Amino acid sequence: MLTGIQVALIGGDARQLEVINKCSELDASIVLIGFDNLQNQFSGITKAELTPDALEALDAIILPAVGTDDHGIVESIFSTSELRLTEDHFKALPKHAKVFTGMAKPYLRKLCAQFSIQLVELFDRDDVAIYNSIPTAEGAIMMAIQNTDFTIHGSNSMVLGFGRTGITVARTLQGLGAKVKVGVNKPEYFARAWEMGFTPFYTQDLYAQVANIDLLFNTIPSMIVTAQIIANIPHRAVIIDLASKPGGTDFRFAEKRGVKALLAPGLPGIVAPKTAGRIIADTLSRIILEDAGQRRNKE
């Protein structure tokens, strides 16, 4: 249980509702900041303004998937007021407090380091990334179906990258009857892709490999689907880039050549916010419980 643990949620989207529910079930003391327009009524939960005073007794701050922008602004679909984290807010936090987010930009990392506050980036964790790969794959398939006039079954599909997301996307395509090629950059990935029944190739041979594809799913967060590669892709093909912004595709050249290319980061929160929220909530609560237990043992 999280009885006696002080938690603040600052901004966010529908995923945060699952986090609120989970923390409430575990009896944490919860403060909501940036939830002015939230219609749900949660018992035993207070709302507050984003002031240093509101953060003085906290054990944990929970931020949205992308914690802040480059200027400290926290996005919230539940508020019309601007939420901006500053040095004064971090100065007010107890030293044992942790800041949780999906992924952090340099602004947030700098503030946490400056005031010796531990920052936890959940999307860096293998467990969260693997769980999140499921709604990502489903969302990618949804986009493919919406933007093609042929079935996934029997299609020549390509997945670039064989990490946590790439494996799930490739397996999902395979399950739907697609012929799946997987672009890798290491011999061990090549061997694993072959063992799983895919057709592996090294990304250095990408130009030749794209000549007859119908669908290309990229998970590599660096420019790999270049203008040269796109020039050898059939016009019928659709590129779905799942890498974090700005993706790994030359979108300008794709548009110029008439190849449909879609950037689709953050699919879990778009296609399955409830599931994505539960993934975050379960991981968060487990970490906070472990921290609370360790502090009690030291006392």
Concise overview:
The chain has 299 residues and is α/β, with parallel strands linked by helices. The protein has helices at residues 15-25, 87-92, 106-114, 126-146, 164-175, 187-195, 206-209, 227-230, 251-257, 267-271, 273-298; strands at residues 6-10, 29-33, 45-48, 60-62, 98-101, 118-121, 156-160, 179-184, 199-202, 215-218, 238-241, 260-263.
Highlighted features:
6-stranded parallel β-sheet; 299 residues; 11 helices; alpha/beta; single chain; 12 strands
Describe this structure in words.
By secondary structure, the protein is α/β, with parallel strands linked by helices. Helix 5 (164-175) links the parallel strand 7 (156-160) and strand 8. It has eleven helices and twelve strands. Strands 3-2-1-4-5-6 form a six-stranded parallel sheet, with helices on both faces. A six-stranded parallel sheet has the order 9-8-7-10-11-12. The radius of gyration is 22 Å and the shape is elongated. The protein has helices at residues 15-25, 87-92, 106-114, 126-146, 164-175, 187-195, 206-209, 227-230, 251-257, 267-271, 273-298; strands at residues 6-10, 29-33, 45-48, 60-62, 98-101, 118-121, 156-160, 179-184, 199-202, 215-218, 238-241, 260-263. The longest helix has 26 residues, at 273-298. Helix 1 packs parallel to helix 11 (273-298) and helix 4 crosses helix 5 (164-175).
What order do the helices and strands come in, and which of them pair?
Elements: E1 6-10, H1 15-25, E2 29-33, E3 45-48, E4 60-62, H2 87-92, E5 98-101, H3 106-114, E6 118-121, H4 126-146, E7 156-160, H5 164-175, E8 179-184, H6 187-195, E9 199-202, H7 206-209, E10 215-218, H8 227-230, E11 238-241, H9 251-257, E12 260-263, H10 267-271, H11 273-298
Parallel strand pairs: 1-2, 1-4, 2-3, 4-5, 5-6, 7-8, 7-10, 8-9, 10-11, 11-12
Helix pairs in contact: 1-11, 4-5, 4-11
